[in-house]
Amino acid sequence: MARITVVISQGQSANPDKRGLEEGLVGALLMESGVEVTVIPHLYDLGPGSTGMLCLEGITGDMIVASWLFPRAAHWTLDRGGIKGHMGQTLLATEADDEDDFDEDESDEAEAEAGDDKQHVGGRNLPNRTIYHLRLAAHNSPEPFVAEIKRIMSEATVQTVDLMSWIGGSPKPEQLERYLNPRKMNGQVVGAVANAKPPASPSDGDGKPAEPIRVAETPARRWYPVIDYSRCTNCMECIDFCLFGVYGVDGAETILVEQPDNCRKGCPACSRVCPENAIIFPQHKAPAIAGSALENAGGLKIDLSQLFGAPSAIEIAAQERDVELVAVGRDAVGLSVGIPKRQADKPQEPKDDLDKLMDQLDDLDL
Amino acid sequence: MTEPLVFMMGKFEARFPTDRQYAKNHMWALAALGGLRFGFSAYAVRLLQDVYFLDWSVEAGAALAERQEIGSIESSKAESALFAPMAGRLARFNEALLADPSTINVDLYGRGWLFDMEGLGGELLSPEEYLIHLEAAWKVAERTIKGQFNE
After folding, report:
1. Which DSSP state fits B58?
2. CA neighbours within 13 Å on the CB side: how many for A178?
């Protein structure tokens, strides 16, 4: 059986039901062989260099992260913190238990990337390991989570490659038998599939801890945007829009959240401006902004308010930004600064004097 | 009156009579009783489908700003807040609709009228201008609806 680390990211709240679920899950997992359990504070609040982050950096193989965040939010928060990996497929029914959709995140991402012809930044420098995400809000008891964790672990050991296609020539029946069903011969294991270690119990002294690793720090609460790079196209609208210096570009001219703690607490304005819905504020009350995969989470009806005259997302974003500007003693700017140019469908007209002036200003490269 | 203009919403033929003006928020406007009478255009009704519930959050006689939120609607397919199509005074609501909102589906350009307003008409569009507006709006609507249903 493969070994896997399960990281339980505790919620911020001291709600006894939530703590009970976390501890129940810890207890249940300690009974399972092959599982290392690590308990960390709310992963969104972990700053660089914190004990929790250092602990996560030490995990090199596959891991399963159970948190109170939406899976997308957890995954890209960790990615920004340097905890990278391929996003794993989980079958834990999340927000839409009454509908027939399993985990939408991965299949949607795959479809989105396959279906559109936009260039997404994508996850970069990904090590060859997978991170699975479980949303603790999905169930009230540990059992469904334990079942899913065990399913993930067994899936990780199954050779999903079609073995038969590797076999060249025409093997004799007994050769094929030996290939497909390895047996010990002279004390050695033969065959293509390695035998697993026999299951260990917590007390058999094979080095498996009977207690989880617990990171006991209480980080301060943070508020900052998280970029989902599978959606991000590096269009730079966010860096133009945010007037608090939260965004920057890295050495590869790619957008990143450079000064997360410059972000104004509670303000989600930039997430409304992103054309790809790639910006997540994991703690925001609206599921779409907090990283939910479903656009219409919680309801089966479409919301036509935008069509019937509600202020557009951009207008709401500008209003929210103005609130924050005024709060720090700056002037409100309305729609005059850093608003995405969404006029691509208008016909190209010849440049007028104002256009030429703007071009000259751009050329000055201030 | 000439033939209604037609706009294709997928396979559905949405019709727009040429005897009235239209607002960008998909309401029609007909001069009546010293002001303007408003109702939903075929575009709006097609997106809503069967109307179940209509609720107003302002009183008759209230002075409204353009795009002020004035109520909400719930239908088989959608729900939405409703907004004033122009600045002016809300003269009266169609009371019959509150008891039976399905009249909107049955007779959207006639007995399914929503409310009367007194005002200057703001930026109402001619039927031809409205159809141009629909071309752009339909693309956004398609994306919104598909996105919301994970199709």
Report:
1. S
2. 9
Interface test with A, best of B9, B28, B38, B80 (most A CBs within 10 A): B80
Is the pTM above the cut of 0.90?
A: no
A86-95, A260-269, B14-23, B31-40: segment of lowest average pLDDT: A86-95
> Which residue among A104, A294, A305 sits closest to B80, beta carbon to beta carbon?
A305
Q: Per the structure block, which two tokens stand in for A290?
A: 């907090």
Note the pLDDT tens digit of each residue in A10-22: 998 778 889 999 9
Nearest CA to A213 out of A55, A38, A78, A19 is that of A38
**Beta-bridge partners for A5:** A36, A63
Complete DSSP assignment for A70-132? -HHHHHHHHHHTT---EEPP-----S-TTSS---HHHHHHHHHHHHS--------S--S-EEE
The answer to whether residues B15 and B6 touch, using CB atoms and an 8 Å cutoff, is yes
Say which of B67, B78, B150 has its CB closest to residue A104: B150
Q: pLDDT tens for residues A33-83?
A: 889 999 999 999 999 999 999 999 999 999 999 999 999 999 999 999 999
Q: How far is CA B7 from CA B11, B30, B65, B130, B132, in A?
A: 10, 20, 30, 10, 10
Pairwise CA distance, residues A100 & A93, whole Å: 9
Q: What is the mean pLDDT of residues B103-118?
A: 96
C-alpha B53, offset from chain centre: 15
Per-residue model confidence (pLDDT) at position B1: 72
Q: A residues 65-94 near B, CB within 8 Å?
A: none
B138 lies within 8 A of chain A by CB: no
Half-sphere exposure of A215 (CA within 13 A, CB side): 23
The owner of tokens 């009350």 is A285
C-alpha R_g of chain A: 25
The per-residue DSSP string of A255-279 comes to EEE--GGGSPTT--HHHHH-TT--E
- Which chain B residue is nearest to residue A312, measuring alpha carbons? B67
The mean pLDDT value for A281-290 works out to 91
Number of H helices, E strands in chain A: 11, 13
Q: How many CA atoms lie less than 13 Å away from A255 in the CB half-sphere? A: 27
In the three-class reduction of DSSP (H, G, I as helix; E, B as strand; rest coil), residue A354 is classed as helix
Predicted confidence (pLDDT) at residue A203 exceeds the cutoff of 80: no
For residues B104 and B85, give the distance between their C-alpha atoms in angstroms, rounded to a whole number: 18
DSSP secondary structure, A193-250, as one string:
SPPPPPPPPTTS-SS--SS-EE----PPP----EE-TTT-----HHHHH-SSS-EEE-
Q: How far is CA A236 from CA A107, A134, A314, A334, in A?
A: 26, 31, 15, 19
Listed ranges A196-200, A226-230, A291-295, B143-147; the one with the highest mean pLDDT: A226-230
Residue B82: beta bridge partners? Answer: B71
Q: Is the pLDDT of residue A206 over 60?
A: no
